[in-house]
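Record type: ASSEMBLY
Status: queued
Input:
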Amino acid sequence: MIAPQFNTEMEFFMDPQRCIGCHACEMACAECETNGQLPMITVDYVKRATSPQTVMQICMHCEDPACAKVCPADAIVKDEFGVVMSANTSRCVGCSNCVLACPFGVPKKVELSDLMMKCNMCYDRTSVGKRPMCATVCPSGALWYGTREKLERLRPNSTPINTFVFGKQEVKTKVHYMMPKGSTKLVVD
Amino acid sequence: MARPPVSEERLAADFGPHLNYAPPEGVPGREEPDDIVETHCCFCGMQCGIKLLVKENRVVGFEPWEEFPFNEGRLCPKGVQRYLQDNHPDRLTRPMEARPGEGFVPVGWEHALDRTVQEIRRIQQQYGKQAFGMLSGVSLTNEKSYLVGKFARVALQTPNLDYNGRLCMVSAGAGNKKAFGMDRACNPWSDMTHAEVIMICGANVSETFPTLTHWVWTGRDNGAKLIVVDPRLTPIARTADLHLAIRPGRDSALYSAILRELIVHDWLDHDFIAQHTSGFEAAAEAVQDYTLDWAETVTGIPASKIAQAAEWWGAAKTSFLCHARGIEHQTKGVENVSACINLVLATGRIGRPYCGYGTITGQGNGQGGREHGHKTDQLPGNRDIENPEDRRFVADIWGIPEPELPHSGYTAYEMLEAIHRGEIKGLLSICFNPVVSLPNNNMVREALDKLEFYACIDFFLSETAHYADIVFAGSLQEEEDGTVTTAEGRVVRIRAAVRPPGEARRDTAILLELARRLGAGDKFAYETSEDIFNELRRASRGSRADYFGITYEKVEKNMGIFWPCPDLDHPGTPRLWEDRQFRTPDKRAHFVPVKYHDPGEVTDDEFDVILTTGRVVSQYLSGTQTRRIGRLVDQYPEPLLELHPALALRKKIADRELVRVVTRRGSAIFPAQIVETIREDTVFIPYHWPGKKSANQLTSGHLDPVSKIPEFKISACRLEPTGQTAPPPSETQAWRAT
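Status: finished
Output:
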């Protein structure tokens, strides 16, 4: 795949602590013509009865993506830049293996078309040097796309991590989470 | 008679709100636009830069405008979806006349204009000039704000002109004028970047000014401590270092107690106080009895937390204090603002980098719109309509003898009361939906019923327009050139991306034609919006809102110019008071002594719970625009009654149960949302909805004696559970409630 302007120094960082639950990201994502008005990012309350805390979830673009491994049709591929693509529609058989396998709960089976869809990091934008739509509009910086150098300058008290521990399984991702300074990984038990 | 010609249900069926969604493949033409127009969002005072995509005179989508310095592409959901107000099925495309029993029927422009002018003449001949009033709004550009002010005084010759800025930030304006002699946020938001303490007072920043959240976090990333004062744990309060969950209506007690702490601990900038301020002793004397314990009793905030806030504020070297409607929508709105400013002045942290203060203006042109004369007591350049010198200056520019210039008339809510009393018989309105946005709106409806004639300029048939005799199809923000002034005082360009659809006309064209037919055409000889702006520049020259040095060209070249900008070579003034030359007569900043008093309505045995109102992130003001956009409605489809589980237990209310909320003005039923994120003595209802779902049926008409802002933030209410569970939110039709 040719992506002459894909800038590998630009990376994706998420900081759910900053999420204000406004849903601008969802609405902006849905605008993409390849999504057909379906957002590939979700924003949900953790527990509205006790807090207005919301979290957003996009595809974390795993280094060794479980979704691709369990796909019986080889419909999901990771490209040379580490972007895990949405299922190739001509191959996807709508089996939902990927939906069940993803540790982050990202892929969705779209019942209407009986196909899997997920975030491909705005490939149409990032491959021509633009930022993903969600991270461009996010008003609080909960979603941020840019160089690590700039991020470290802007947020000196946070550290990006991309290692997640689910029980005995460790998952490394292309997308980073912002954690308190000095953190190395996020353990999800 | 100005009353809906057919049932409101039928009007809603014909004119909406209907929900506009983009088709799955996007609005046709989006992939190959004819034009990409750099302009600004039509909603809040942040006025985020945005690019509109245009195809064949239709706005078909948006792109983030990443070069614009304030928001760098960031947008809230309203900004993302704002383009869907274009090509909307509810859009008014021709003038209409109300025919009882028939509804609103299309008429020609000639007829609509003729009838309006005849009615204006008849009413003014029969009852006097003042019997015809005008209501305006600060979503209008600076040019239109100026034009409305001149139109009402020169063409209608009435003193009774006011605007919905009266519901927005007039308390802040009055407080700022008292302290600084000028009314503008003192700093750009970027001054939050290295503020050691950021104090947000009564501002739901993340829901009402979402893109300002970025600047708050910019400060926090550099170590700023964040203090948020709000009765609710809002999304921004959730992330605060210190959340002061104040009892609604007790704000000046908190800030006065903090001032007392600053004095007790000598956290004062004595040099600044001595050299650049006046009135400190009187302000100090006013707070001498306001101890932490007293403040705890009044505000419901633990004394230890107030002490912590005072210590952080007192010890800081840099800081930024901002406030919004939470402290301003009160009968002591101006006093609350003064109490906040006193904290800024006592520590001398103003007029320096990262030392900031300002109100966060709510409406799109809340800043510029409140400067250029469609406020009843004001002339352009924030001049005083009762000041002989200001009157002469403006009368000269307008080409009328000074004695012919009307004086101050009624403010917005007072004007509705005057209509209700029968003093005002005719009304022209633009950009104002008082049936939803004014308090005590059962009175507002009764008042509109009594009008002999009402003409309304709007782009959708708002709930207030239901009462009109003539509806002029006007223009959306993106259909007319102009400027607005953002909440930080930056004058920016609004560009006409498209022409009004069908027979709809630009607002300016409608006003100019009415002026001509009223015999004042020679005073309104403008070809373009820029012509109006150039007259505004002259009218504001040397004033306390000086735009003289600002031109369209400069604004475009610099992506905005901050006023004051007194001459053409001047670069503008992003940060005020660096020269310490305050615009008061003695050139000093003024402390204002503030004595605490209770809100206009306090709880009692009959009405035992405090009701406060506000907004949600997906809706804007009275919802005229945002209740027509599908995704924004879906995000928060109906107004909910937020209450604490302890209060719910006491009142035996279950989650999603329908609860009747009763005040002295009326009652309405809302589904309960039981959350721990609100005080136990307070309930909250957002106000964007009309009819039976309107929170403003309940709110009070108590006004601040100085600013005349209504006390939206405090009413005494009673909760009556109905025993019925609300239908699922997906089944609600609250956005079109009648």
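Annotation: The first helix of chain A runs from residue 24 to 30.
Annotation: Chain A has a mean pLDDT of 91.
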